[in-house]
């Protein structure tokens, strides 16, 4: 017996956003599992870190967990609670509205870590850090504004009109990341001595800076372009979820990478670690030390890099 069309639920057009959000949630959960592993690894191998760094990791972990819970709740609401009630899909859900603010807070917290590395690099780079702080406030402002709009609209499709807020936020994120990463890479590049062994280890530090700085920029650029090129649906919201996880994992990887670099140094590998032997070259002395700290020899120019969150350039 054919089903009467009068008993079929009405249809609601939301475009590809719900499916994309579900897929991005799956990818985000994988990234969240990696982040949990990195946090566990951090607690095992960096128990001697300063209290402030430990608190930072805890805060980042709690924010990442809350961000994950929001995504799971939104999918459960659409796919389980409102199953066979498609008209409810167009109604804003609190977890969707809160998510932009949480994303903005996480991005700012991650920027604090990257900015701290440059702040401790040299006084002449503090202007860059000040600009990054201003951009971070812009990120937080755009995220807060988008969240406020999320609680005021009656139809989730109306959020498409405010895609510019998200694109502006990620634009500020990209600008901050590019400045911080460029300064770090430039400072490391200028510290070359001409000695093959030392320069190869500086190359490792440059690769380290690229992996923890530029890779998140690529994902942020995807979100930025999506929000500008296709603001008619909430695809950018789905991509934001994965991008945020990339930032969290980048910070945690940067913290945990210190141990691997120290292990390489201890084994004498040339690709090595952070405790570089002191090499004197007339008017220049280069000494890169690990987070445990080591004294530097006298010289007209000293580079002292502490991966425990401190990067100092002295002359």
Task: Quickly list its features.
single chain; 315 residues; mainly alpha; two-stranded antiparallel ribbon; 7 helices; disordered C terminus
Helix content: 55-70%
Compute the number of helices: 7
Strand order of the largest sheet: 1-2
Task: Compute the average pLDDT.
Answer: 76
SS elements, strand count = 4
What does this 3D model show about the protein?
This protein has 7 helices and 4 strands, in the order αααααααββββ. With about 325 residues, the chain is mainly alpha-helical. The strands form 2 sheets. The chain has a two-stranded antiparallel ribbon with strand order 1-2. A hairpin with a 3-residue loop joins strand 3 and strand 4. Helix 1 packs parallel to helix 7, helix 5 packs antiparallel against helix 6 and helix 6 runs antiparallel to helix 7. The chain is globular. The C terminus is likely disordered.
What order do the helices and strands come in, and which of them pair?
Layout: H1 17-45, H2 51-81, H3 94-119, H4 126-152, H5 163-190, H6 196-229, H7 235-266, E1 279-281, E2 284-286, E3 302-306, E4 310-314
Antiparallel strand pairs: 1-2, 3-4
Helix pairs in contact: 1-2, 1-7, 2-3, 2-7, 3-4, 3-5, 3-7, 4-5, 5-6, 6-7
């Amino acid at each position: 017996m054919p089903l009467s069309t009068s008993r079929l639920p009405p249809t609601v057009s939301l475009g590809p956003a719900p499916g994309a959000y579900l897929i991005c949630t799956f990818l985000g959960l994988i990234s969240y599992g990696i982040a949990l592993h990195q946090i566990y690894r951090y607690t095992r191998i960096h128990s001697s870190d300063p209290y402030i760094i430990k608190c930072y990791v805890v805060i980042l972990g709690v924010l990442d967990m809350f961000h994950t819970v929001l995504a799971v709740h939104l999918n459960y609401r659409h796919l389980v609670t409102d199953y066979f009630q498609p008209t409810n899909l167009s109604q804003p859900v609190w977890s969707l509205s809160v998510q932009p603010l949480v994303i903005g807070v996480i991005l700012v917290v991650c920027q604090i870590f990257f900015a701290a590395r440059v702040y401790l690099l040299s006084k002449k780079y503090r202007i860059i850090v000040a600009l990054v702080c201003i951009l971070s406030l812009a990120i937080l402002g755009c995220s807060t504004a988008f969240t406020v709009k999320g609680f005021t609209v009656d139809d989730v499709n109306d959020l498409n009109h405010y895609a510019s807020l998200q694109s502006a936020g990620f634009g500020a994120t990209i600008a901050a990341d590019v400045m911080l990463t460029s300064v770090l890479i430039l400072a490391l590049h200028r510290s070359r001595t001409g000695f093959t062994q030392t320069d190869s280890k500086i190359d490792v530090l440059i690769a380290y800076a690229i992996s923890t700085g530029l890779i998140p920029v690529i994902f942020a650029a995807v979100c930025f372009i999506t929000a500008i090129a296709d603001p008619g649906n909430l695809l950018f919201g789905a991509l934001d979820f994965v991008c945020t996880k990339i930032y969290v994992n980048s910070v945690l990887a940067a913290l945990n990478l210190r141990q691997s670099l120290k292990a390489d140094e201890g084994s004498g590998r040339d690709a090595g670690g952070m405790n570089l032997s002191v090499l004197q070259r007339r008017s220049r002395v280069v000494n890169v030390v690990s987070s445990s700290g080591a004294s530097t020899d006298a010289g007209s120019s000293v580079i002292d890099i502490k991966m425990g969150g401190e990067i100092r350039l002295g002359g």
